[in-house]
Amino acid sequence: MENIPDEVRAYQQQYWQEQKAKKAAGEANKKINPKEQARLHAKFRKPIKARELESLAVQYGWVVETGNGNHGVHLVNPVTGYRQPLPAHAGRDLATGTGIAIANRIVQSPAL
User: Is the pTM above the cut of 0.70?
Assistant: First the structure.
């Protein structure tokens, strides 16, 4: 360990500082207000449409991208780059658990 050049040691320290900052930023985004979470669970305990999740995503700063494929609609977080596929099938309701999972993902990592 003593034979490590100073420039390499400085690079290592910089790298670990960046990793700590990324981890702290990620943990800060994951904290959700319990009242907000309870409100979302109450709202999404009923069958919901994909359009309702799209509007929620836009409120939290996500971007809606359309394309081809099985899931032609993706919700994209511009901060993290995460792409959440949205199963929008001809206006049919989403499964309750699917809607809640996607809503939690949107709220826990806002792009604002």
Answer: no
Collect all residues with Cβ–Cβ distance below 8 Å to 16 and sequence separation of at least 6: none
Tokens of 45: 């305990």
What tokens were used for 81?
Answer: 């780059």
* Surface-to-core class of residue 104, CB atoms within 10 Å of its CB (0-12 exposed, 13-18 middle, 19+ buried): middle
Give me the phi and psi of 66, to 5 degrees please.
-115, 155
Token couple for 19:
């990793």
Residues 6+ apart with CB under 8 A from 100: 40, 41, 44, 45
Question: pLDDT confidence of 42, banded at 50, 70, 90?
Answer: confident
